[in-house]
Amino acid sequence: MNPNLRRRSFVGAALAAGAAPLAFAQAGPYPNRPIRIFVGYAAGGAVDTMARIVAQRLTTALGQSVIVENRAGSAGLLAADTVAKAPADGYTLLHGESALLIAPQLQNQTSSLDPIKSLVPVAGLFQSRLLLVANNEVKASNPAEFLALVKANPGRFTYGTSGIGTVHHLGVELFKSRTKTHLLHIPYRGASQLVTDVINGQLQFGVVSAAAGVPQVRSGRVKAIAMFSSTRLAGADDIGTLAEVVPGFHVAPRQMLLAPAGTPQAVIDRLSAAVGELLATPEAASAAAAQGVTTAYLAPGPLAADVKREYAEWGRVIKAQGISAE
């Protein structure tokens, strides 16, 4: 045999033998390297705080570092777009929330992201409750009285929320569309001034998180009208729900873990199972409660169905009410 040919054959065999373990290592059990979770908001905010709690516990559960990266902008769409364009291998994830299902549909927005097609649900994480509060002089103190009052006085009352296109805003717009009522929306940049204006009577109504609103109600500074969720809130079960006058009504901002479309099902199932286990612990429930949210695990299938329903519902509200981005 030609010595040069024999030498080339030996080198080729050696390279092939060396490459096999490397290929095996790269394709080993998931995960075998650090995972990044993107958050579409600045560090220190409510969503970022919960993402870091999840990342810390997933690091322990998966045996790999799970790192949170903040990419704020465009109501979370910048981070979502980053994740949607990442390799679909389970190493780049998104800690998203309900704004992701709203912002791409607002009129005048420029994002081309389709959260239903570009991202795949991994697990439902948390939900918060919304509370409709009123100035103490308003002649309504429960859902039925509120509905009767606004029906009898179309366009007379104002309500404030933390901004155009928020779940708080669209929740009221959904209520209006289902009840054929009219209230004037006044957008704010946060809940603090909103609550002050309700107390002072500059606003008749305001929509805030239950965590922020219930203490104001208990202090007597405002009155509670209704929860937006379909069930009453534990510890505040004297407050009725809008579902009591509008059957099936349920609006509750959610946080969820998402991955790029095309991520292998085995990877999604591995992540979802780990999330389900960590959210079932008392420690997770306590950490969530401290941030004014509740644990709300959903497996990939049910979450995907719920997300599609919610996305379609917000789209109908936005179109019907002609809601535009700020």
Task: Explain what this protein looks like in three dimensions.
It contains eleven helices and eleven strands. The longest helix has 24 residues. 43% of the residues lie in helices and 18% in strands. Helix 6 packs across helix 11. Strand 1, helix 2 and strand 2 form a beta-alpha-beta unit. The protein is an alpha/beta fold. The strands form two sheets. Strands 2-1-3-10-4-11 form a six-stranded mixed β-sheet, sandwiched between helices.
List the helices and strands and how they pair.
Elements: H1 3-26, E1 35-39, H2 46-62, E2 66-70, H3 77-84, E3 92-97, H4 115-118, E4 119-127, E5 130-134, H5 143-152, E6 158-161, H6 167-179, E7 184-187, H7 191-200, E8 205-209, H8 210-218, E9 223-227, E10 254-260, H9 265-279, H10 282-290, E11 294-298, H11 300-321
Parallel strand pairs: 1-2, 1-3, 6-7, 6-8
Antiparallel strand pairs: 3-10, 4-10, 4-11, 5-8, 5-9
Helix pairs in contact: 2-9, 6-11
Condensed summary:
This protein is an alpha/beta fold and 326 residues long.
Tell me the structural class.
alpha/beta
Helix content: 40-55%
Secondary-structure element order, N to C: HEHEHEHEEHEHEHEHEEHHEH
Proportion in β-strands: 15-25%
- Strand numbers in spatial order across the main sheet: 2-1-3-10-4-11
The radius of gyration computed from the alpha-carbon positions, rounded to a whole number of angstroms, is: 24 Å
- Quick one: biggest sheet? 6 strands, mixed
In whole angstroms, the N-to-C terminal distance is 77 Å
**Mean pLDDT score:** 90
Global shape: globular
Unreliable spans are 1-26
